[in-house]
Design a protein that fits this description.
Number of strands: 14
Oligomer: single chain
Number of domains: 4
Helix content: 40-55%
CATH topology of the largest domain: Rossmann fold
CATH class of the largest domain: Alpha Beta
Distance between the termini: 86 Å
Largest sheet: 3 strands, antiparallel
CATH superfamily of the largest domain: HUPs
Low-confidence stretches: none
Structural class: mainly alpha
Number of helices: 20
Shape: elongated
Length: about 500
RNA sequence: GGCCCGUUCGUCUAAGGGUUAGGACACCACCCUUUCACGGUGGUGAUACGAGUUCGAAUCUCGUACGGGCUACCA
């Protein structure tokens, strides 16, 4: 019998969550859902110096907005807590000590100045970044180079120290990545990574292994930037818990910006969002725009993320979350990095806005409308309007332009598009149109249109030359859905009012 | 520099030895619509290079080039 699938997303709360992070969440979530497993969110806050207020909250807000709720987390509870590594601090030291005892790690007493000195000393063109590794560790101050008594004395005197892994020589460290297949490393080239820091906190390397074990994680997914440190984690698994208990790894391809790994800088530079939601850096007060505020709906955001590095092998591109769960497989995740294409991202959102029902769009649209100063008193009208204009909205804010005039008569008219060609015949036409519309019993799009065209033809006018003025009268500018649809939704009184108002403006000056 | 990962239209990708190398976004043209979209039809456009294996290679192997990542008491 195989173990229950348990996966985790392990973010460091240092700022906004960007595209790649959310995609990692998504793939974790899809995998867990697909196999009836648990999805855990564990906060990796072992670096106090990088603590950023609000970042943790932000992560959970994003998950909520996306509809990717964890089964276990700081906020959701669970039997494997605490889910914040800073609160698990005490549990790590014993594992580090165990490694030392068994000869797989050692105490190192080097100060940061000494480390700097070492790097400066051994730095060369051939070796621009010297590592604390098997070639150098015997030249440093650690429990390998000083006597046991001296080590003991230093420890008892509470001398500042770290614990480093003692990477073996000439060993091939290999594992099978679910996406990339066999990957191997020569241990001689690895450095002796710090496992336990001077402040007693573990580094990522120790914490990820210990917590994945304690939380019974069966599959560990993360970005490709972690691949180079995977051998350290493999070694730790081997020493601590047994390689046979290690989760299966998958390293996701990176999401690239125009110049390599996507960064929030790319966003402001190229005009597209990078973070899931707006993020205000509490230190600098710098605001980074998010997909949510830009006008993406969760369905669109999830969909575009899912297809960035994965596809189901068919030509299907539009997937709901449920469909993704059904279709997802780790084997079909690409191994190559994917450059983010904002145009395509918008296309996904557009498809989802078109596909969405009025119900799911309504509250967002209403909020946007009201933010722009439009009061929405009539909910039924809003429903009708959304249905009418959603096909031409790519981003949520597009609804403002496309539908404000339904709720509020235009304040200014684009007279430039009308006046040069305005004449008495047109003036008369609209006077007659008002009369006709006043009398009509059939207030619907088809009747409005046929009456309009009939009057035009009786007066030997081309309907085409009259429709643009009509649009400007109702809308104020050259946009919006079909003009007779607009008149229909606006209703008799309002339509006639707007024609009258505009006629005054067009005929004077 | 070293190590690791990668390489099919501009972008996301399909094709797991035999296809006119398929689709989507973007772009262009036409149709629809005399607002703009939506929609429809068509078009431009790719297997990085060199060897090898094979009757046959985008697909397997090797090399080269290029791209990316990592190289902290950060994750």
């Amino acid at each position: 019998m195989s173990k229950k699938v348990r996966v985790r997303f392990a973010p460091s709360p240092t700022g906004g969550l960007h595209l790649g992070g959310v995609r990692t969440v998504l793939y974790n979530y899809l995998f867990a859902q697909k196999y009836g497993g648990d999805f855990i969110v564990r906060i990796e806050d072992t670096d106090q110096s990088r603590y950023v207020a609000g970042a943790e909250e932000y992560i959970f807000d994003t998950l909520k907005w996306c509809g990717l709720e964890p089964d276990e987390s700081v906020q959701h509870g669970g039997d494997f807590g605490p889910y914040r590594q800073s609160e698990r601090k005490d549990s790590y030291r014993q594992y580090a000590e165990q490694l030392v005892k068994e000869g797989n790690a050692y105490y190192a007493f080097d100060t940061s100045e000494e480390l700097e000195k070492m790097r400066a000393e051994y730095k060369s063109e051939q070796n621009p970044s010297p590592q604390y590794d098997q070639t150098l560790r015997m030249k440093m101050k650690n429990s390998l180079t000083i006597s046991a008594e001296e080590t003991k004395k230093l420890l008892e005197a509470n001398a500042e120290h770290v614990i480093r892994i003692k990477v073996p020589e000439n060993e091939t460290v290999a594992f099978t990545d679910m996406i990339r297949g066999e990957v191997h490393f020569d241990s001689s080239l690895l450095d002796d990574k710090v496992l336990l820091k001077a402040d007693g906190m573990p580094t990522y390397h120790l914490a990820v292994v210990v917590d994945d074990c304690l939380m019974q994680i069966t599959h560990a997914f993360r970005g490709e930037e972690w691949l180079p440190s995977a051998p350290v984690h493999i070694l730790l698994w081997k020493y601590l818990f047994g390689i046979e208990n290690m989760p299966q790894w998958a390293h996701f391809p990176l999401i690239l910006g125009p110049n390599g790994k996507l960064s929030k800088r790319d966003g402001s530079k190229y005009g597209f969002p990078v973070f899931s939601m707006n993020w205000m850096d509490p230190k600098t007060n710098e605001l980074t725009e998010g997909f949510k505020e830009k006008g993406f709906i969760p369905e669109g955001f999830i969909n575009l993320l899912a297809l960035l590095g994965w596809n189901d092998g068919t030509e299907k591109e539009i997937f709901s979350l449920e469909e993704l769960i059904e279709a997802f497989s780790m084997e079909r995740v690409h191994s190559a990095g994917a450059k983010f294409d904002y145009e395509k991202a918008k296309w996904f959102n557009h498809e989802w806005i078109k596909k969405s029902g009025v119900g799911s769009l309504k509250s967002g649209v209403k909020k946007l409308l009201e933010q722009s100063g439009v009061t929405v008193a009539d909910e039924a009208l809003l429903d009708k309007v959304i249905e009418l204009v959603k096909d031409r909205c790519t981003l949520l804010p597009d609804f403002v332009q496309q539908s404000s005039f339904f709720f509020k008569a235009p304040e200014t008219l684009d007279t430039d598009s009308v006046k040069p060609k305005w004449n008495d015949a047109k003036q008369l036409f609209f006077v007659e149109l008002i009369r006709n519309y006043e009398l009509t019993q059939q207030w619907n799009t088809a009747t409005l249109e046929s009456n309009f065209k009939e009057i035009a033809s009786v007066n030997s006018l081309k309907p085409g030359e009259l429709m643009l003025p009509f649009r400007i009268m109702l809308v104020g500018g050259k946009f919006g859905p079909g003009v007779f649809d607009i008149a229909n939704v606006l209703g008799k009184g309002e339509t006639i009012n707007r024609i009258k108002t505009a006629l005054d403006i067009f005929s004077t000056h």
